[in-house]
Amino acid sequence: MVNVATRLQILLIGALLFPRLLNHRLFAMDTAEQNCVRSIKLWPPSQNTRQVLVDRIIKNLTTPSILSRRYGVLSKEEAEEEAKQIESSAFATANQLFEKEQDGDGKSSVELYAKTSSTLMVEAIKRGPKSKEDQEPLFESITENDQTLFDISKGDRSFLDAEKTKQLLKPLQEPGNKYTKICFSNTSFGVDAARVAVPILSLVKHQLKEVNLSDFIAGRPEEEALEVMSMFSSALDGSDLRYLCLSENALGEKGVRAFSELLSSQNNLEELYLMNNGISEEAAKAVCELIPSTKKLKTLHFHNNMTGDEGAIAISELLKKSPILEDFRCSSTRVGSEGGVALSDAISKCTLLKKLDLRDNMFGVEAGLALSKAISVFSNLTEIHLSYLNLEDEGASVLVNALNNSGSPLEVVEMAGNDITVKSASSLAAFLISKRESLTKINLSENELKDEGSMVISKALEDEFPRLTEVDLSSNQIRRAGARVLAQAVVGKPGFKLLNINGNFLSDEGVEDVKEIFKNSPDLLGSLDENDPEGEEYNDEDGDGDDDDDELESRLKGLDIKQEE
Q: Which of 133, 164, 242, 558 has its Cα between 20 and 30 A from that of 140?
């Protein structure tokens, strides 16, 4: 029976990661296995099942693919490290769900386990391999403006035991040391190592201003990891920090509460990072409950969590108590329309915002409309990341109109993957012109602007943009005419660095046209190897491809872009 259960777990996880195999594999089960599906507890997965998932993730991270061609293939060593972290994080996330639904068979937890693993795996691919600069010696001591950093995060991950920890942390015990910042990231403390670290941290905690404990319990069983977190929390209780990073630790609510002593003693935090922590609705509420004051908070990052609408509502309460917040990131947190509206309302209270990142959520049009009201009050915003929010034309138009009318000196604008069409092109163009003095990067990739929309954008870009360095209109169903006009609009700009129009419908002739335009500066043109010369869907709808080029370009002549009053 155990073997059948294990096989069923592997089957379900594999099918969820590779859906096309689902029907075939289920059909291949014998009658006894099929009869067991309803009676077997599918959660928690066996150790063998967990290892199978780790092996599959390693294979995906080290196998060339469309994504890896863009971001790079990880080495076997990096892939093994990433795979273990991904599986551990996914397991912790799914186990939280199972603890709420213990009467079930665990299928929903297995589904979440697979889905979370898949999401984290794609993110690992997009991060790409580590740069050479990351491969440094294990210990580093750096002085910056009379503050000293004690950093043990460099090089390969180290699984610390008591003796190694004692040797590694010796500098912190030196009389009269002036360390005010510590970084224990990219390590793995077990209980024995923590017992050595705790008294040392207790000695220096009152001089510390910055603490980075991200990714410091990797590969440890949940019970041990929670105990280690609790020990570090107790050791640092009473410190007066300005910066705290607890990212990459698969915290969940249990982990957040394991850090309760540390969090509840912080009244002067200026920066808080809780990224990739499995922050659920309950965990988000716990964070808000434990931190006594965010009046001095300037940076708050919640990237890549399972926060959802209810969690977003809890975070909104934290935002309302953070009047001087300058940098807010709540990307990839599964927030839908209700949570998006709540966040938007709270963000309107943070009038000093300079950076706003809400990418990869499920806001939809309603939350987009609410956000447009919030950002209209900003005058200091320099970066706004609104990609993959399901804004559509209606949401995108009201947002760019609000930004157009704001006094913010925007430098970076990202609105990729929002189903934006030519209907919004005039509003986008007017907005770009209104911010031409400050804009450095424009990302409108993975939309549906097509030739006509891209030409409207190109017309705007013909104006002077003294600081513009990057334009991304990849994957927008653009053909030869649109690509040619866009290339001509940016090629001669001083300081320009990259035009990305890959993944469009350029014919071979169109590719040659664009390359010819950039013949004196080929490094400024991104790769064009993923274009689809056929562009069947677009051609069927709009005509015969290059035959329409002259007509499309003629539409551009005399085009006026109306700016909002």
A: 242
Please state whether beta strands 441-443 and 412-414 pair in parallel, antiparallel, or not at all (unpaired). Answer: parallel
Q: Which of 202, 152, 212, 149 is nearest to 180 (CA)?
A: 149
Q: Are 281 and 307 in contact (CB under 8 A)?
A: yes
Tens of pLDDT, residue by residue over 279-290, are 999 999 999 999
Cα-based distances in Å from 412 to 73, 385, 429, 444, 524: 28, 8, 15, 11, 18
What pLDDT is recorded for position 97? 76
- Which residues, in sequence order, are CB contacts of 341 under 8 Å at separation 6+? 366, 367, 370
Give tens-digit pLDDT for 314-356: 999 999 999 999 999 999 999 999 999 999 999 999 999 999 9
Q: What is the pLDDT of residue 524?
A: 96
Q: State the pTM of this model.
A: 0.75
- Greatest Cα-to-Cα distance within the chain, rounded to the nearest angstrom: 79
d(CA 228, CA 190): 7
Phi, psi angle pair for 443, to nearest 5°:
-125, 110
Least trusted range by pLDDT, from 97-106, 137-146, 471-480, 487-496: 137-146
Going by the DSSP 8-state scheme, the letter that residue 133 receives in this structure is: G
Q: Please state, for a pLDDT cut of 70, what percent of the chain lies above it.
A: 83
Pick from 384, 316, 382, 383: nearest CA to 350: 316
Sign, CA torsion 99/101/105/111: negative
Q: Which of 285, 337, 288 is nearest to 307 (CA)?
A: 285
Alpha helices by DSSP H, listed for 128-221, are 162-168, 170-173, 191-204
Q: In Å, what is the CA distance from 354 to each residue of 359, 384, 436?
A: 16, 8, 18
- In terms of Cα–Cα distance, which of 141, 125, 178, 205 is closest to 213? 205
Show Cβ contacts of residue 200 under 8 Å, excluding neighbours closer than 6 positions: 169, 172, 173
H-assigned helices in 174-328: 191-204, 222-236, 252-258, 260-264, 281-290, 308-320
**C-beta of residue 189 within 8 angstroms of C-beta of residue 162:** no
Q: pLDDT value at position 4?
A: 47
Q: What is the DSSP string of 316-366?
A: HHHHHT-TT--EEE--SS---HHHHHHHHHHHTT-TT--EEE--S---HHH
Q: Work out whether the CA dihedral 307, 220, 210, 240 comes out positive or negative.
A: positive
What count of other Cβ atoms lies within 10 Å of the Cβ of residue 373?
A: 14
Specify the DSSP element, H or E, that contains 9.
Answer: helix 2-17
Interatomic CA distance for residues 332 and 340, integer angstroms: 12
Give me the mean pLDDT over the 148-156 stretch. Answer: 87
| CB atoms closer than 10 angstroms to residue 149 | 16
Segment 36-45 shows an average pLDDT of 65
- Closest by Cα among 505, 512, 412 to 454: 505
Tokens matching residue 117: 């693993």
Mean pLDDT of the chain: 85
* Token reading at 444: 């409108």
Residue 366 has pLDDT above 70, yes or no: yes
